[in-house]
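We modelled the chain as a single entity of 192 amino acids. Its sequence is:
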Amino acid sequence: MLLKKKSTIISLVLALILATCCFYYFAIYNSVRDIYVSSDYVGYSTGNGLLNDAELVVIGSPTKDFEDREIHLTELPKGFVADIATFTEIDVEKVLKGPEEDAVDLTVIEPIGLYQTFKGKKRIAYEGYTEMKKDNKYLIFLKKNSYGQYSVINMQAGKFNLDGTDPQDLAGSPSKTEIFTELNTSFSQELK
């Protein structure tokens, strides 16, 4: 009788531990919390301004899911994040401006990143930027940073979803639609 009582108690404790672990894993560890931060950057309110300052303009698609991309994370002591960026590999369909050889095996830096903590995943985005989605087609405006790597310029209004498969792409910048309309006239043939 005592042995049966002990095994019942042990079974209940193990079931409680398993339930707690499952709850933590699915409800907390895999949850995603969005954090939006401000940033100093050069912004363009017109399509011509954006086009003139871009060093490379391409039409292409990310080759990996956001979670599978390389993240650059700089942490300060005590766990504070100083900088975060995502390195996104792009399958380039067409180069509209800039050297075509730079578009071979193109990796661009997006001002957003996702990293894991004990309290869940944190997605940090600069100025409301949303990540480019795998296999979706984008018009992307890029400029080299001081390390010779291409970065998306003009934050959310520096990339435009061309196939209408990314509903988040219209978020963030109020002038994005106006800029895209202006660019559509400049690249009417290329964007078809």
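As a brief sanity check on the tokenised model: The longest strand covers residues 81-97. The two ends are 79 Å apart (CA to CA).
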